[in-house]
Write a structure and sequence with these properties.
The protein has helices spanning about 1-15, 30-45, 75-90, 100, 120-125, 140-145, 165-190, 195-200, 210-235, 240-265, 270, 280-300, 300-305, and strands at about 70-75, 95, 115. The protein is mainly α. It has a three-stranded antiparallel β-sheet, covered by helices on one side. The radius of gyration is 45 Å and the shape is rod-shaped. It starts with a helix and ends with a helix.
């Protein structure tokens, strides 16, 4: 016992045992090599026993946002925690975003996410392959749609030549046939006695507006008939030009009827016998132009059908 105390006293006098409480908080009385190696690790000094330099490991720099990629989105709190556990078991460092603010529920800033460094992305996805795909609820989808500024879909978008679109197609076909019938009657009776009486000076019901009215009627209806045939072709081809071309046709057809009535109103012999029946086509074409134009502009079926 005296011999051990003597050796310890000798080492203390020679300064071989170091009190490291002031260096790294360890307890005095360690073996000399251990104490000096500990001091070297704390201060980055050379080890006196092995002549090697020991420095503390450098800290890994914190990755920037551009170096991180998202590998999981947490709609389900349980699955979100499971994904974190799998990454920890695989030894893959990760960070979470939105977890504290959202309390693991989707909201205004989006659902919580797990992000890893770009070089760890493949390993992370492999580790998370056992996690079931999260299915967001209706409330979560509504919250995401609201945060993204996108309206929530009310249901499936209808497409195809059905509903009111089919009715509009039938009306266009009927209108083309009716215009062709009016042109046929005008051409076949061009030299009939009733026309000669109104367009020939000195005739029984002559008026100077009848001749330009007849020529204008022929030119306008010929143009409308050609236009209607083009619309029918666009309708069956489901061309994207159909809605715009049809809206213009409906308005032009109504304006043509209005101009025709305005000219006839200036002819006394016709104005004297004009009745509400003569205004029937004017009102029908006006309603068709208004309803058809609004429908072609706002209908989701029209936008989904005419895409060619």
């Amino acid at each position: 016992m005296r011999k051990s105390a003597a050796w310890m006293s000798m080492f203390r006098r020679r300064g071989r045992i170091v009190d490291t409480n002031s260096i790294d908080g360890s307890t005095a009385g360690q073996l000399p090599g251990v104490a000096l190696w500990t001091a070297g690790m704390s201060r980055g000094l050379d080890c006196r026993r092995c002549d090697a330099q020991h420095r503390p490991p450098e800290r890994t720099p914190t990755p920037t946002v551009d170096e991180l990629v998202t590998v999981a989105v947490g709609f389900d709190p349980a699955l979100f925690l499971l994904a974190q556990s799998l990454l920890r078991d695989a030894g893959i460092p990760y960070v979470t975003q939105g977890e504290r603010a959202q309390d693991l529920f989707a909201g205004g800033a989006g659902p919580p996410r797990i992000r890893v460094k770009r070089e760890d992305a493949e390993r992370a996805r492999a580790a998370l392959s056992e996690v079931p795909e999260p299915v967001p609820s209706d409330a979560e989808l509504a919250a995401l749609a609201e945060s993204a500024g996108q309206p929530e879909e009310a249901g499936p978008i209808l497409s195809g030549l059905g509903g009111l679109l089919a009715a509009l197609g039938v009306i266009l076909h009927f209108r083309a046939v009716w215009i062709a019938h009016e042109l046929s009657e005008l051409v076949t009776r061009w030299n009939a006695k009733e026309w000669r009486d109104v367009v020939t000076p000195g005739g029984r019901a002559y008026h100077p507006l009848w001749a330009p009215y007849r020529v204008g009627f022929l030119a306008t209806d010929s143009l409308l008939f050609l236009w209607a045939m083009i619309l029918i072709a666009l309708f069956w081809r489901r061309s994207r030009w159909f809605p715009t071309a049809t809206s213009l046709f409906l308005v032009a057809d109504w304006v043509s009827e209005a101009l025709s009535l305005l000219v006839l109103w200036q002819i006394p012999s016709y104005a004297a016998v004009m009745s509400a029946y003569a205004l029937r086509d004017f009102f029908l074409l006006g309603v068709l132009a208004l309803v058809g134009t609004l429908y072609l502009r706002d209908s989701a079926r029209v936008r989904a059908t005419f895409t060619e």
